[in-house]
Amino acid sequence: MITFLVDQHREVADMFAQLEKMEGAKDDKAQRLAEQVVISLVQHSVAEEIYLYPTVRKVLPDGDDIAEHEISEHNEAEQTMKRLESLTPEEPAFWPTVRTLISEVLHHVAEEENSLFPQLRAACSEEQLQELGRKVEQVQKIAPTRPHPSSPSEGAALAAVAPGAGLVDRLRDALSGRGG
Ligand SMILES: [Fe+2]
């Protein structure tokens, strides 16, 4: 599970680096990349909320406090993602919101990799982590990881989940409904 989550962190960090290079751009490409980041982050958050934090609560002595803290950070990032999904790169708030999201998420990533994951490795058996890894991977199969610009199909698939709701809510519903 830890390897898988760290790989996801790297993917998101790569997308952030690409976004930073585009900072200030007002085109569709920036918007699409921001959407990809949001999709990956919601998948990651849901996977962590379903499998990582319950494990943290169970196996670490101060697990409840750690889990609450991480979940409240997820909520903050999710509010930022919701602001972002309502903006286009032409709007002045778009890039500052991207910046806020990047700093919130990188903080979360550093905290998990430097503190939480090492504690978890020490507290869990290898088999336990492997079993959780298989489950966490299932969450990613429920929704498309990477919207491909040339395939409009998954926009339609997501729209079917909860018409009218924003991307973050639709994804969260789709992912946690099946996974939970
Ligand atoms: Fe994470």
Can you put this structure into words, describing what you see?
With 180 residues, the protein is mostly helical. The protein has a single domain, classed as Up-down Bundle (Four Helix Bundle (Hemerythrin (Met), subunit A)). It is 79% helix and 0% strand. It has seven helices and no strands. Helix 2 packs antiparallel against helix 3.
The set of bound ligands, ions and cofactors reads:
fe (ii) ion
Number of helices: 7
Class based on secondary structure composition and strand pairing: mainly alpha
CATH architecture: Up-down Bundle
Overall morphology: elongated
Number of domains: 1
Beta strand %: under 5%
Summary tags:
180 residues; mainly alpha; Four Helix Bundle (Hemerythrin (Met), subunit A); 7 helices; elongated; binds fe (ii) ion
Report a brief summary of the structure:
The chain is mainly alpha-helical.
Topology, element by element:
Layout: H1 2-22, H2 28-59, H3 63-85, H4 94-123, H5 126-142, H6 153-159, H7 167-179
Bound molecules: fe (ii) ion.
